[in-house]
Amino acid sequence: xxxxxxxxxxxxxxxxxxxxxxxxxxxxxxxxxxxxxxxxxxxxxxxxxxxxxxxxxxxxxxxxxxxxxxxxxxxxxxxxxxxxxxxxxxxxxxxxxxxxxxxxxxxxxxxxxxxxxxxxxxxxxxxxxxxxxxxxxxxxxxxxxxxxxxxxxxxxxxxxxxxxxxxxxxxxxxxxxxxxxxxxxxxxxxxxxxxxxxxxxxxxxxxxxxxxxxxxxxxxxxxxxxxxxxxxxxxxxxxxxxxxxxxxxxxxxxxxxxx
Amino acid sequence: xxxxxxxxxxxxxxxxxxxxxxxxxxxxxxxxxxxxxxxxxxxxxxxxxxxxxxxxxxxxxxxxxxxxxxxxxxxxxxxxxxxxxxxxxxxxxxxxxxxxxxxxxxxxxxxxxxxxxxxxxxxxxxxxxxxxxxxxxxxxxxxxxxxxxxxxxxxxxxxxxxxxxxxxxxxxxxxxxxxxxxxxxxxxxxxxxxxxxxxxxxxxxxxxxxxxxxxxxxxxxxxxxxxxxxxx
Lengths: 259, 232
Known about the structure:
The structure holds 2 protein chains of 2 kinds.
Chain A: E1 3-9, E2 18-24, H1 33-46, E3 69-70, E4 73-74, E5 96-100, E6 109-111, E7 114-115, H2 118-127, H3 147-157, H4 164-168, H5 175-186, H6 195-208, H7 219-223, H8 231-246, H9 252-255
Parallel strand pairs in A: 1-5
Antiparallel strand pairs in A: 1-2, 3-4, 3-5, 6-7
Chain B: H1 2-9, H2 11-36, H3 43-55, H4 65-95, H5 110-113, H6 115-134, H7 152-160, H8 163-190, H9 202-225
Helix pairs in contact in B: 1-2, 2-4, 2-8, 2-9, 6-8, 8-9
């Protein structure tokens, strides 16, 4: 099939960007979207032009690096897949495709379709961890957990940090990402010691990074390649509310005379 | 108080405060609507009710004492709600300064998309409504109440008898309908009320609350325009 691509080209974070139009010829329906871009890039290289920069790594939907806006939808028209898992058989001969980087103040464009998502890493640094004692591994079944909580925590842990929720959000809020991380750790027994400070710290970092404020619009869960539910945002809200009295209790270490 | 300030510092805390103040106003709307429906019982019941609001709490409270305490609480809730929505909106606008060339609305919901603007419309209407029905500044045939009697029914019927005024009220109620359609659902979500037992009821509750409040209020100008409710 032959396609017309309108691709955002931007030489650097401070350079002005613009759309360039390219023709993708003889694209196989078996190709993935990224393979289609690889072919376009080979043509561009042969013509002596700068290839389109896009981020990619695993190409199997688990690393979260290949996010881009395809025809106004993060990761393209198919639900529950990342860009790398989008196949060209879902397009038709003669289609016009608009390709843009994820747009948010907190995600500055590095080059073309590549954005800097390290703001999400800094949210993780602020509280996306648990404290464990080093030494030999504990017995696998020593910590009881109900199946319901375990399942929910694993659903939240599906988040690959691709930033599609931010890209889809009319407010450019990263609340779905933050809620997935807060819920994933906060629902597990290992995550309890930091539970009430984690939620406060991670939201504070989220705000500091310049992400917008959630208005419960719900576009994020539609865009999420891992199907993370906005129910986790409710969970995060509940934990923040509870933290206003829970976090006021003296930390266990202070009671025990530690630290 | 320190905890409220701590909540206010975070974007989610701001939303929680907006949800609580929004809930207070939903309660007010429900009460106001029930009071309005007394218009169908005639001038006597309506004026007695209006007068009673002014003498409520006497003799512990002075004349209009309860009313002013009530107004102060509502005003405070309104200021918090509006101020925080202004602040969070500004944060969100700053969070995406370069717009997409093309962006699909993944789940088009008119109510959530227009939340800020229905809010502005309701605020403008609220100012008009007070000047129209409370102070009478924008009401040609307004009769102020005395310490022994209210003329609320007269003011209601002569005010809404003007089709233009009635149209303003009906448009404002449409804005309230949409604001509550998203607001009531959003309230549950923001306060973290998402237990599997009732999570499926949040949308139906929002729909019922917004529709009941809408029709409850709109029935009054409709009844006056069609002369179902009229002066003696």
